[in-house]
Amino acid sequence: MGSVARVTESTPLITSPEPSVEGFVREYLRELNFTQGTVLERASTNDKYLALARTVRHYLMSRWMRTTNEHLRTQPKAVAYLSAEYLLGRQLDNALIAADLTEVASEALASLGIDLADLREAEVEPGLGNGGLGRLAACFVDSLATMSIPAIGYGIRYEYGIFRQNFVDGWQVEEPDHWLDNGSPWEFAHPEHEVTVSFGGRTETVTEQVGDDTVERTRWVPGWKVLGVPYNYMVPGYRNGCVNTLRLWSARATHAFDLEIFNYGDYAEAVRAQTFAENISKVLYPEDSTPQGKELRLQQQYFFVACSLRDFIDQLLPEGFDLHRLPERVCFQLNDTHPVIAVPELMRILVDEQGFAWDEAWEVTQGCFAYTCHTLLPEALEVWPVELLGRLLPRHLEIIYRINDEFLDEVRESSGDDELLVRRMSIIAEHPQRAVRMAHLATVAATKVNGVAELHSQLLRDKVLADFARLWPEKFTNVTNGVTPRRFVRLANPGLSGLITEAIGDGWVTDLDRLRDLEPMADDPEFRRRFREVKAANKERLAGFLERRDGIEIPADTMLDVMVKRLHEYKRQTLKILHVVTLYDRIVSGRLDPEDVVPRTVVFGAKAAPGYAMAKQIIGLINHVGSVVNAHPEVSRVLRVAFPANYDVTVAETLIPAADLSEQISLAGKEASGTGNMKFALNGALTVGTDDGANVEIRQLVGDDNFFLFGLTEPEAAAVAEAGYRPSAYYEENPVLRRALDLVARGEFSGGDRRVFEPIVSNLLGEDRFMVLADFQSYLDAQERVETAYRDPDAWSRAAVLNVARSGFFSSDRSMRDYLDRIWHAEPMEA
Ligand code: RUG
């Protein structure tokens, strides 16, 4: 514990260069020649990009070192964000704006005949997350740095991030994501800080003499070990002198293990052992909301939290730190259930290694953890079979059992031995197999439990974790998600950023509430005209991007209707595609004159988990409908469908600023929050949405007139389900719905083959768990209102400007303030 050298103010630091064009050219050529080992004339685009990334690093480096030293020296209370996913997006532009270096770099490169825009395109984004949860973690670390909060992000350096999606005949095909292949200039490996992580084996009881007393202690005798090597990434705050650290762990075989096997001359076995160990950080699990019980995934979870706790204690605390005071120094924020195994790990460290009494250790542990739940779907709450957890982490299972025993005693005491309640709340589930409920463990251990939007937090309290909320009402709180305005407005939408800054100054970039000052501009015709110009230019930019990247042509002058998010039945991409089918059907059957249709381009972006068959079917349906619609001479004049493959942060940054209409159409009570919904509103798209997740707050803030609400509310949906939902009744009663579903069933979009989309049709008619059919008519009605509104460009852009002006609440800086006030109680460092 506490192996940190004492840090004093006088620790010498190299100072980063002052930004100037000549200076930048010098630094750049030095990187190109000395580090990249090439000359300008022979340098590939990748060489030039790598040299640029390294040059930009120079300008942030002394801030990073200073921030790190200040944290070590002053030992403030820190936030340690534990997350299995970080969906970072490209780093170059973010680093450039943080260091206020974009113009200098662009000019310097131009003087060497290089276009900055070309080098941007060379960067491969690290896709170390599946979707909203991972992107949220990336927004949060950005905001923490921008607000000078002492914080460290901990996670896994997956060698392969989220798969690359390709379409073959309209069906999703997954390919590995070789994101590290061309070099990764933003990371710093620190093998000297490697951590040993143990697995397997057994536990034993040993007797120790402590003074005059003989005490019995449990000891873990592990079966095998791996090493965790940390890679540090800079997390630069926006022009505030603070650069925090994101520390991602990579698994390696232990040296001793290798050597022993080598000594026996078994090279193949040594390589096998190495592969086995390194598999732990090989791939990101591609599930989102539907985790499958994979042993490797549990290994990953334990691996990264064991490394992170060890690292925090050994590297960030001073020599001899009294761990009783750990809650004064850190809050470990558990991002979903993935890192929850950190709870028994801290108990193990305190009890087994540090000799704490159980109660003392539990008090410290409870003071150090907080838990964020991100779901309402029961299948997304992780459970680990006792057999697996006991085999992989035998000591941790014992600790979990003891935590559970003591917790259930408390439940019995407070409930008068209500055994049904005890069974419901137990950390151990008995059916269908004995398993550890990680959400229960997290809730029992955490000082606070939060949901990610008001409605979500309320449903956690009232439904998912209701028994716990009754026992500990004060434990439950809400922190509505947010998104970083730096990446998703300032960087992604330079046109709008310029317009806003011209109107109200640039303070909004770090104080997004200031967007309120734009409200009067909504009534200024000239401002609205310029706002429309920006939107039109963003559509042109998108059209160029899709043509270059995917060979997809979209008209740049139609209403841009966008649905981008993971493919999941609860998110209801099916509802959107049924709307497209309905428009197609009306035009083809002559019931709707194309002249009366507001021309629109519907853009989808979505990856399906590779093992999620229905999601992949839906992707196939969207692409097949798209092909037929786009090929139809009359229909395609007013309706186009585009589905660029491999939706990622980079695509989002071009797509969202161009959107007119944001599709947020999940069944109410199923989407925890959503964060895409916030990005669209901030970029001046109007939402067509249900009363779900953060849509509720968006609508409240932007106003009913500037939002297209439809669909059942959560209590209504619950009542329909309670009464026995019969989707076929909607089909029978609604001829428009019937025609749309019949077209799909008849094979209109599958070359006449009825079998292709039969699983979708029969699922909708038979079960329809997410009530697509129940909400269909209401959705069509909302789309009619959308069309009417869009016909009046002036009124539409007024509503769009109001969306921007009233969405400042959705900054992740505000989310951080809420976490600080309600959960973390940490303070910013002085600039
Ligand atoms: O599905 C949720 C989104 O509603 C939410 O906005 C996001 C961030 O809070 O997290 C998503 N999520 C949930 N991703 N994985 C899970 C599984 O628990």
Automatic annotation (TrEMBL):
Domain of life assignment: Bacteria
InterPro entries in UniProt: Glycg_phsphrylas, Glyco_trans_35, Pyridoxal_P_attach_site
Native source species: Isoptericola haloaureus
Swiss-Prot/TrEMBL cofactor(s): pyridoxal 5'-phosphate
Protein's name in the database: Alpha-1,4 glucan phosphorylase
Function: Phosphorylase is an important allosteric enzyme in carbohydrate metabolism. Enzymes from different sources differ in their regulatory mechanisms and in their natural substrates. However, all known phosphorylases share catalytic and structural properties.
Keywords: Carbohydrate metabolism, Glycosyltransferase, Pyridoxal phosphate, Transferase
PANTHER family found in the cross-reference section: GLYCOGEN PHOSPHORYLASE, MALTODEXTRIN PHOSPHORYLASE
Top EC group: transferase
Annotated signal peptide: none
Substrates-to-products reaction catalysed: [(1->4)-alpha-D-glucosyl](n) + phosphate = [(1->4)-alpha-D-glucosyl](n-1) + alpha-D-glucose 1-phosphate
NCBIfam families recorded: P_ylase
Assigned protein family: Belongs to the glycogen phosphorylase family.
EC number: 2.4.1.1
Pfam families listed in its UniProt record: Phosphorylase (PF00343)
SUPFAM superfamilies, A to Z: UDP-Glycosyltransferase/glycogen phosphorylase
Family annotation (CDD domains): GT35_Glycogen_Phosphorylase
GO molecular function: 1,4-alpha-oligoglucan phosphorylase activity
